[in-house]
Amino acid sequence: MGKDIGIQVVDSTNEGTVLDLKINPIRDASNKIVSGLVIGNTLEQNKAFILIAQPNDFKDNPTLGVGFDDNLLGEDLLEYRHKIREEFAKDGLKTTKLDLYDLKNVEIKAHYE
């Protein structure tokens, strides 16, 4: 299993509280829950977590995190373009497209190597 497969989090307010664990209880014939956590592709949520995380948010990688919310009102995004590439690389992500010139039209394409 690669780094882009794992436990899903809620990514839409239609499904619940965003970033909570995505749970879909499955019951057996006696109505006991036999599974519930949703497993699937986590690439997009991993990218989002790295973007919003501050350093020390991840116990297993304390230097990882862009801390993007620190600059949401700022105007100089050049520093963040470099930081995003650098932080994604720490997690094994190769950034192939990074369009961060307008916060209303951000596009970040990356994949695990």
pLDDT under 50 segments (min length 5)?
none
- The amount of beta strand, in percent, is 25-35%
Strand order of the largest sheet: 1-4
Tell the overall outline. elongated
Structural class: alpha+beta
What is the chain-wise order of helices and strands? Answer: EEEEHHEE
Distinct helical segment count: 2
Mean pLDDT: 90
Radius of gyration over all CA atoms, rounded: 17 Å
Query: How many β-strands, per DSSP?
Result: 6
**What number of domains?**
2
Major β-sheet annotation: 2 strands, antiparallel
Helix proportion: 10-25%
- Ends: how far apart? 13 Å
Blueprint (SSEs and pairs):
Layout: E1 5-7, E2 23-27, E3 33-37, E4 39-41, H1 43-52, H2 78-90, E5 93-99, E6 107-112
Antiparallel strand pairs: 1-4, 2-3, 5-6
Walk me through this protein's architecture:
The protein is an alpha+beta fold. It has 2 domains: 41 residues, no CATH class; 71 residues, no CATH class. 20% of the residues lie in helices and 26% in strands. The protein is built from 2 helices and 6 strands. The model has no long low-confidence stretch (mean pLDDT 90).
Based on the model shown, name its key terms.
elongated; 2 domains; single chain; two-stranded antiparallel ribbon; 113 residues; 20% helix; 6 strands; alpha+beta
Please give a quick description of this structure:
The chain folds into 2 domains: 1-41, no CATH class; 43-113, no CATH class. The strands form 3 sheets. Strands 1-4 form a two-stranded antiparallel ribbon. It has a two-stranded antiparallel sheet with strand order 2-3.
